[in-house]
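Sequence in, structure out.
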Amino acid sequence: LREAKRLLEETREEEAISLLDAARQTNPADARLWIALIRAHLESGEQERARGLLNEARAQGLDGFALDETDARVEAASGNIEGARTTLTRARGRSGGDARLIARAFMLEGELEASLDNVDEALAAYEAADAANPASAALQVAASLALRSGRPTYARRSYGTLCKRDPEGPWCAQEARLSAKLRGDPAGPCSLDPLTVIENANRWGWP
């Protein structure tokens, strides 16, 4: 998996896919290999091949939270956001009440909604992730998305909430910058410098 990840990061998709496919055929019961291979095909723009592999994995009895996440990615890549939402609702239902998994599913939903320019839906998903697990970094991601999509007031509120939770962290300064910007304060910064956040913390989603 590490070697395949390195190849993907170097945009050597064909080599990565070949490596993962061979590993998957050698270890057909390892869901991680199926998921990595499906993700690699998605990154290469091969949605139909990814869907075929997903169906094949399901037919072999593979299941679970991580495979549901991959299923949602396949649906979103095909433009079927409703299918992705339904799949992630199912994933949350099988989380066993684990707040981290519930938040993780909402974080992915936010990512997928944002990828299709559904900003309001993405922000709502990030808010739900934060409600499930405030340690999920959802508000940081939401604030970054809000800034990119021209919603500085929303971003300021998000940073304000983070500032209250962690007064010693960087969020209070972010809130102050945005407040100055929104006031048109000439003493404030002339441009925004949003904090780099873990929006795609694990780009390839290795389980």
